[in-house]
Amino acid sequence: MVKTPCCESMGLKKGPWTPEEDQILISHIQQYGHGNWRALPKQAGLLRCGKSCRLRWINYLRPDIKRGRFSKEEEETIVKLHAVLGNRWASIATRLPGRTDNEIKNFWHTHLKKRIERSQLQLGYEASSAGTLMDMPQVVVDATSSTVKGKLLANDSLLSRKYPPAAGLGFYGTASSDISGDIIGNNSRSVIGDEMEFWYNMFMNSHHKM
């Protein structure tokens, strides 16, 4: 079954309303009301669609329309109602006297929605930053505490045992203090061994010659 169109599209005027058309619509509704929007254009003598007349009256021409900027209270009401009702603009408009559903919808998409999204992004960034700081380990070192002192002393004693001071080298001075005992102990031919072997060979050779 094909739905019957609300009005005959042939010959009807479209586009912006003129001040003369507005005045004709206002005068007719003030005198006869708007019980039947489909029949109203013909009764008023307007070459307009019934839907166009209804939207023009509701959104622009009715006397109780509230003009101007939305107040802070109206903004809060829209946000709260939208959280419950979603995009049911007509239902939201019933809670805001003088505001039209079309005006509320436009205000939501152009201002409130973007403002809420920015606030949510800012809150999410602050929460993530706070969580990162809380997760970082807080290390506080007290150099005067007995525990730290004990660890430092223990480390010093281990280092002294691992790297003892080098022994003297006799005729040719002493070894450098940064040479470790491990290096001296592990070398197959140390400086001390070479010197003793030299004098031992000298002594043995002189003894045989005599």
From TrEMBL:
Residues 9-61, 62-112 form the Myb-like domain. The keyword DNA-binding applies. InterPro entries: Homeodomain-like_sf, Myb_dom, Myb_TF_plants, SANT/Myb. GO terms for cellular component: nucleus. Keywords: DNA-binding, Nucleus, Repeat. Its main location: nucleus. Pfam families: Myb_DNA-binding (PF00249). It is found in: Nucleus. CDD domains: SANT (cd00167). It comes from Flemingia macrophylla. Residues 9-61, 62-116 form the HTH myb-type domain. This is Uncharacterized protein. The keyword Ribosomal protein does not apply. Gene3D superfamilies: Homeodomain-like (1.10.10.60). GO terms for molecular function: DNA binding.
